[in-house]
Amino acid sequence: MREKELGSIINFYVTPTTRLEFLLGKQLPYVVLAMLNFLLLTLLAVTLFGVPLKGSFAAMSAGALLYVVSATAMGLLMSSFMRSQVAAVFGTAIVTLIPATQYSGFIEPVSALEGFGAIVGAVYPTTHFLIISRGAFAKSLGFAELQASFVPLALAVPVLIGLCAMLLKKQES
Questions:
Q1: Residue 11 CB neighbour total at 10 angstroms
Q2: How far is 12 from 20, CA to CA, in rounded Å?
Q3: Which of 17, 42, 139, 173 is the least crowded, having the fewest Cβ atoms under 10 Å away?
Q4: Which of 80-84, 117-121, 131-135 has the lowest mean pLDDT?
């Protein structure tokens, strides 16, 4: 969005860069930053707060990477069709924060949800990352036991990035 508002989107229009390359280039710094945050917060949880990591750190890290990529892809998806940066930020906040708190199992179990809430809870990436992080921290689980939560996250990444690429116009109309 910012490129459209500043006029620097013209650089994207005139280069041979594909939509997918452009989107992944925009996403990569945020993924790296989010993974650094994940590592720092995990380190603080284990050392400063004494929360034991009983399960697989590799499984939790892989889940975090898939989650971060899908979460940043949601922001890119909003930016690909919104008209202003403010609208994109507001839309992303609505689309991510409400489902992440209400339907992901963060407040109440997804199994207790009914109707539309249950559907959102089943497909929303935060639901599956919460299962992975709880399993790694509290239940001594690894990749094998958590594979049912990895599949939806692994599917969300190409679906969201593909939608972003489809909605991003190579030329402004």
A1: 11
A2: 12
A3: 173
A4: 80-84
Q: What are phi and psi of 160, to 5 degrees?
A: -65, -45
User: What stretch of H or E contains 88?
Assistant: helix 85-102
Q: How many CB atoms lie within 10 A of CB 68?
A: 22
Q: Give residue 132's domain range.
A: 2-167
Closest of 3, 6, 136, 18 to residue 67, by C-alpha? 136
Cα separation of 165 and 159, whole Å? 10
Give the least confident one: 59-73, 80-94, 111-125. Answer: 80-94
Which is nearest to 77 in space by CA: 159, 171, 151, 172?
159
The domain tally of the chain equals 1
Joined together, the tokens standing for residue 22 give 């452009």
User: What DSSP character marks residue 103?
Assistant: T
At 123-144, the pLDDT tens digits run 999 999 999 999 999 999 999 9
pTM score of the predicted model: 0.86
Tell whether 172 is covered by a domain: no
Residues in the chain: 173
- For 46-87, the DSSP string reads HHTS-----S-HHHHHHHHHHHHHHHHHHHHHHHHH-SSHHH
Give a yes or no: residue 55 inside a domain: yes
